[in-house]
Amino acid sequence: MATAEQTTAAAAAATPAAPLPRVPMVPIPPRGVDYRGKLVLAPMVRSGELPSRLLALHYGADLVWGPETVDHSLIGAARRVNPRTGMVEYTRQPSHSHSPANSAGVHESVIYRLDPARERGKLVFQLGTADPARAVAAARFVAPDVAGIDVNAGCPKPFSVLGGMGAALLQTPEKLAGILEALVKEIVPEFGIGISVKIRLLETAPETEALVRRLVRTGITGLTVHCRTTPMRPRERAIRGQLGMVAAVCREAGVACLMNGDVEGRDQADRLVAEFGVDGAMIATAAEKNPSCFRSAADGGMASWEDAVERYLRYAMEVENKISNTKFLLAQMIPGKAATYKEVHKCKSYVDFTRALGHEGMAEMARETDKVLGLGEFEVKPEPKPKNKQKNQQQQQQKGGQQQQKGGQQASKKRKHEGEERAEPGKKMAEAVEPTPAAAPASVAV
Ligand SMILES: Cc1cc2nc3c(=O)[nH]c(=O)nc-3n(C[C@H](O)[C@H](O)[C@H](O)COP(=O)(O)O)c2cc1C
């Protein structure tokens, strides 16, 4: 038999549009943000790096979530302000450079980059964590730079789940509540920002309701529900049957509730918010393709992909975005059928991008960016490792006599040839790389 709570929840789910009573809200800390009435950019590993967030804000996103970053990777990281761009960067040494023999000449890698001006009061930092103490330590490091800390309790990937993070936390609600309570206790008074959580649906409404009822008692200010269960693939349509219930439980506790899953734009979001009684909505994949989905029809509606791409490229250069990430995002934004799609795929520098996209007006900015990142004409190729064939020749040389002389000549001929290739940058284009080599991944794919 259903409990009184289940009955209330079922009624709320059945009549989600019914006017809901006003209740006291969990207070929003002085530097925090209220998620009510907001349409926000979802946390997205890879697709939610700084230029994407700036573009979403430009087109009217009210708040932006950064990509999930695992607590481990922040502990021991350093914070710096990039003197050229003014961006805040969290960096760390790549893991393979820890031995003194390896550390010489190895640059630290940027694991997170944010804009202290344009993202001020709008950036929510999402943590991947399975441990209250580590979550607090990591949150303390980033809290002065952000407007909120969100805990990922929905990532279904093995990396997260096997580490007890992401969707694994949905199965251990007391552990998840413990993490949120620790963050509320330590971070809210010290930094004046709010704590929130992003969950997925559980299999049945009573299970989801029990989870949400526990989470809203932790002191969080917001809860986002991704309307898919953990086993559901992104292609499967989001299910909204439990949404009215989740919204009602959050409202009763004074916690803002954002809906997520197949929200495609501002006008549709307004309708869904009214229909399900939630406080706001979050967009991921639609924004990955064209972040102008945050703009209402009344304000101009969707921009063309060409406009979005041009602006994206400018932001990417302004913040010195890693070229592989820029290329990935361009591939999401440019339709596969467009002639430029294949051209962009071949690009290895920012100058290449401006040529492929016909933005010659940005060529000088692109050249400056290439110079800083060591791309295109500024690329420094690593010393080639001796090939096996060469090694064998060297071994043959050690056998002495005439054979030694002959082998030596061949090797020196080959080295000369390789030297000539290196002396002509641009003749043979190698894979584009940033001078800061990638460390063990700081953020994980979700
Ligand atoms: C490329 C990509 C990366 C994502 N990374 C994260 C992440 O870091 N943290 C998270 O909670 N969800 C992540 N998600 C899930 C989204 O935030 C969102 O919940 C999901 O895509 C459903 O929203 P949509 O239907 O608007 O795409 C990611 C999704 C995509 C497509």
UniProtKB/TrEMBL annotation:
Which cofactors go with this protein? FMN
One GO cellular component this record assigns the protein to is: cytoplasm
Q: Name one GO molecular function term.
A: flavin adenine dinucleotide binding
Provide the catalytic activity annotation. a 5,6-dihydrouridine in mRNA + NADP(+) = a uridine in mRNA + NADPH + H(+); a 5,6-dihydrouridine in mRNA + NAD(+) = a uridine in mRNA + NADH + H(+)
In what ranges is there compositional bias, type Low complexity?
391-410, 432-446
Task: Provide the residue span(s) of the region labelled Disordered.
Answer: 379-446
**Start and end of every DUS-like FMN-binding domain?**
109-332
Question: What's the protein called, per UniProt?
Answer: DUS-like FMN-binding domain-containing protein
